[in-house]
Design a protein that fits this description.
single chain, 64 residues, mainly alpha, 73% helix
Amino acid sequence: MPWTAKDAHNKTHRAKSPKRKRQWSKVANSILERTGDDARAIRGANAAVKKAGKRKAKTRKASR
């Protein structure tokens, strides 16, 4: 079953913005299509959202 941005709310607390929720669903569906493994897709999407959040935090620190 393909994931939607609404599913991100139940799977991770890091995807708070609509942009991060869309990112989560896109990554999860991509991994699910390649591997067929739901758990792996969720873990990969969670990692991608976490990594994107860290990049954003670094950018904020550098601009101060």
